[in-house]
Amino acid sequence: MALRAAILRHVRVPVKTLTLTGRKSQPWGPNGASLRFLSSHGDDHLSKDEVIERVLSVIKSFPKVDPSQVTPDVHFQKDLGLDSLDNVEIVMALEEEFKLEIPDKEADKIDSIGYL
Amino acid sequence: MAKVVPARSEVLFLFRSLLRTARQFSDYNIREYTKRRTIDGFRQNRTLSDPDSIASAFSHGKAQLEIAKRQAVVYSLYAPKVKSIMDLKPCNTV
């Protein structure tokens, strides 16, 4: 009985990791900022690297940004030559990517990837 | 009409509100149009320096926001039954 339980537990582990990796490799669409139809429940356990990667992909897909210039510590307006309107657009794109809503006060403060 | 030049934060707030409202449309075409129109409109007017034209552009934007909000509600009652092909998941089409 104990052996059976142990085997069952053992069997379940790979299945879990499979669904996890399946979710990770979910294509994000050609422009990154496109809507993802997964519910936000699946996104509760994102690792920090994964978040950074997704943030970078959103910003790289922004039409005016040169993808080669995007690094984790780039400043939107100083380094990428964006204006405050672009800034708002990026924050909106990030909201769509992560299916969340950023309050205006916080959104105004986001001016670089490092800040995020 | 009183012409008050809006503060920078007010303009950005209007911009953000318009984009937020644009997202609520269930129809892909209307959603994308509203978003595009908002971005283009703000870009077009970004170089305005005359206080009068800034104020009128701002009040025009506010009027448009009211319209967009109302239409988002109206269109949600008559949402299209079939999604636009552009709305489909990319992984389904590949």
From TrEMBL, chain A:
Keywords from the UniProt entry: Electron transport, Fatty acid biosynthesis, Fatty acid metabolism, Lipid biosynthesis, Lipid metabolism, Mitochondrion, Phosphopantetheine, Phosphoprotein, Respiratory chain, Transit peptide, Transport
Keyword Oxidoreductase: no
Gene3D superfamilies the UniProt entry points to: ACP-like
Gene Ontology cellular component annotations, sorted alphabetically: mitochondrion
Keyword Transport among UniProt keywords: yes
Domain Carrier: 49-116
Pathway(s) the chain acts in: Lipid metabolism; fatty acid biosynthesis
Subcellular location, record wording: Mitochondrion
InterPro entries: ACP, ACP-like_sf, PP-bd_ACP
Major subcellular location class: mitochondrion
Superkingdom as given in the UniProt entry: Eukaryota
Gene Ontology molecular-function annotations: acyl binding; acyl carrier activity
Function: Carrier of the growing fatty acid chain in fatty acid biosynthesis. May be involved in the synthesis of short and medium chain fatty acids. Accessory and non-catalytic subunit of the mitochondrial membrane respiratory chain NADH dehydrogenase (Complex I), which functions in the transfer of electrons from NADH to the respiratory chain.
Subunit relationships: Complex I is composed of at least 49 different subunits.
Similarity field: Belongs to the acyl carrier protein (ACP) family.
NCBIfam families: acyl_carrier, PRK00982.1-2
Protein name: Acyl carrier protein
Automatic annotation (TrEMBL), chain B:
Pfam families, per the entry: Complex1_LYR (PF05347)
Superkingdom of source: Eukaryota
The Complex 1 LYR protein domain, residue ranges: 10-66
Residues passing through the membrane, by range: none
A GO BP entry: iron-sulfur cluster assembly
PANTHER family the record matches: OS08G0239000 PROTEIN
The protein, known as: Complex 1 LYR protein domain-containing protein
Organism: Castanea mollissima
